[in-house]
Design a protein that fits this description.
Blueprint: H1 4-13, E1 36-44, E2 50-64, E3 67-78, E4 88-97, E5 103-112, E6 115-124, E7 129-132, E8 135-138, H2 148-153, E9 166-173, E10 176-191, E11 195-204, E12 219-223, E13 230-236, E14 241-250, E15 259-262
Antiparallel strand pairs: 1-2, 1-14, 2-3, 3-4, 4-5, 5-6, 6-7, 7-8, 9-10, 10-11, 11-12, 11-15, 12-13, 13-14
Length: 264
């Protein structure tokens, strides 16, 4: 259960693009104000998955520093029946410039098993800096935070890639810039807890940490339609494995045309 929601953020967020990439400054065509997507987080140690937590991601419009921004909020929590093992109550926020989908501000307010952390980052596009509670850091152009990257990457045209192609990205996390990539694996049909979908499949390169082993062990499937919403994520972790499934959505910009059948 440890850091379950941070895992969801990592899983869904490891998709931003680096400076110099053709998508730098891309316009949004994939989502809109009012969108809300919910997920169930399943955890397994011996092959049997249990519903251990949930997460929700929502989009509204706001203004920050005289710029119109998408205000994205990601919230995650362990299910009450598991709180005695490891209680998680996390909230992530990102203010994303509507003009170029680059982050303006990132806020992390987390409580995980008694550990609490608050982080506030302001991104300056003109000076390519990130101002955190611990200092000022130089960052490359088109840098993304762990939440804004989800929405930025949903605008990738995966039809331009062939299987095994690598898409580089840069992410700012814990006062460091990480230069990573995702490997596009092609398209396939998957069955999730919600239904059967045509999906786009890829693997993000992960940084070795306390929760992940690092490398290309995580697999992500997003809807093969203009919404590109994450449908399923699977990954081994230090102890056991997790599976994250989309379970509910509201106000998508386009019909979820990738859905073949519905389980409910």
């Amino acid at each position: 259960m440890k850091k379950i929601f941070l895992l969801v953020i990592w899983i869904m967020g490891l998709q931003p693009l680096s400076a110099g990439d053709e998508f730098c400054g891309i316009r949004n065509k994939a989502f809109e104000e009012g969108e809300s997507i919910s997920y169930n987080v399943f955890y397994s140690v011996i092959g049997l998955y249990v519903n251990a937590g949930n997460a929700n991601f929502s989009v509204s419009l706001d203004k920050i520093n005289n710029r119109i921004a998408y205000h994205v909020v990601g919230k995650g929590s362990s299910n009450p029946s598991y709180d005695w093992i490891f209680k998680v109550r996390d909230r992530y926020e990102s203010y994303i410039d509507t003009a170029n989908l680059q982050p303006l501000k990132f806020i992390r307010n987390i409580e995980e098993g008694g550990y609490k952390k608050f982080e506030n980052i302001t991104f300056n596009q003109e000076t390519n800096t990130a101002v955190t509670t611990e200092g000022v850091y130089k960052v490359p152009g088109c840098i993304q935070d762990v939440l804004s990257s989800i929405y930025y990457a949903r605008n990738i045209d995966f039809n331009k890639y062939k299987p095994e192609d690598k898409i580089p990205f840069a992410m700012f996390l814990d006062n460091e810039v990480y230069n990573l990539y995702i490997k596009y694996l092609g398209k396939e049909t998957i069955k999730t807890k919600y239904g059967k979908f045509r999906a786009i499949k890829f693997k993000p390169l992960l940084v070795k940490g306390t929760l992940f082993e690092g490398g290309e062990k995580m697999t992500v499937w997003v809807s093969d339609d203009p919404n590109h919403i994450p449908l399923r994520i699977e990954s081994p972790i230090v102890v056991g494995s997790v599976k994250v499934d989309m379970m509910q959505y509201r106000n998508l910009r386009y019909p979820l045309s990738s859905m073949i059948s519905f389980n409910h």
